[in-house]
Design goal:
There is one protein chain. With 211 residues, the chain is an alpha+beta fold. It has one domain (2-202): Nuclear Transport Factor 2, Chain: A (Roll), CATH 3.10.450. The chain contains 8 helices and 7 strands; from the N terminus they run ββααααααβββββαα. It has helices spanning 16-20, 37-52, 59-69, 76-84, 87-90, 93-117, 175-189, 192-202; strands spanning 2-4, 10-12, 122-131, 135-143, 150-159, 162-170, 173-174. Strands 2-1-3-4-5-6-7 form a 7-stranded mixed beta sheet. The N and C termini lie far apart (39 Å).
Length: 211
């Protein structure tokens, strides 16, 4: 597998990384490199390469890897406020913390399902686009064996010297935006407690204590 830049150079990687965040899309990362968002995206692929190439990719070892390396890199404060919209301010602090604790598990499960599917992908970094005051998008193209290329946009935010993943859209479709619309409907019709129950019921692996 190879990760290439827009100039055609090749960098060792596990292209799949991208895809995780991928269709699921939304939101993960490796150690922060605030000065260079493109290097930050490349670092994700580099970090995943040993896992993707070990010949024994399973749901269990992918889950272990994500919780050890990705969980604390999610921009959960920003994600939580975005997904819950105006309802965020209506929920007390304990409720906000409970939501973020549970929702990050939901995100990781989405990543895991995608990662297992795309273990032989190649990612080409096209360019990065700044969004004032603290956002940046890294535009990439993902190539899969025997399939058409997939365009993927990594939405990142700088926070206190670190870059964190906020969202990843694939072919112009944002998983986070779709989730936001779904949760809005649940919150307005059935309330916050019901939303928490629904998210917990959808978790297939180990559930957080908050459930």
């Amino acid at each position: 597998m190879a990760l290439t830049n827009s100039a055609g150079g090749t960098v060792k990687s596990a292209g799949t990384a991208a895809i995780i965040i991928l269709v699921a899309s939304l939101f993960f990362s490796a150690p922060a490199r605030a000065a260079d968002p493109e290097a930050y995206v490349r670092s994700i692929a580099d970090k995943l390469e040993p896992l993707l190439n070990n010949g024994h990719l399973t749901a269990e070892n992918v889950d272990t890897f994500l919780k050890a390396n990705i969980l604390n890199q999610l921009d959960m404060q920003r994600i939580g406020r975005y997904v819950l919209r105006k309802h965020w301010k209506e929920i007390d602090q304990a409720g906000q913390e409970k939501f973020m604790d549970i929702f990050q598990y939901f995100i990781l499960e989405s990543f895991k399902k995608q990662l297992i599917k795309y273990s032989k992908a190649e990612i080409k970094i096209i360019r990065s686009v700044e969004h004032e005051p603290a956002g940046v998008s890294v535009i990439t193209r993902v190539r899969l064996p025997s399939k058409s290329p997939v365009n993927m946009n990594w939405r990142l935010f700088r926070d206190e010297g670190q870059i964190r993943i906020f969202d990843v859209s694939v072919q112009g479709i944002s998983k986070l935006s779709a989730t936001r619309a779904e949760y809005k409907s649940v919150l307005e019709k059935q309330g916050f407690d019901h939303l928490i129950t629904e998210i917990c019921n959808r978790l297939e692996g180990t559930k957080p204590a908050s459930c």
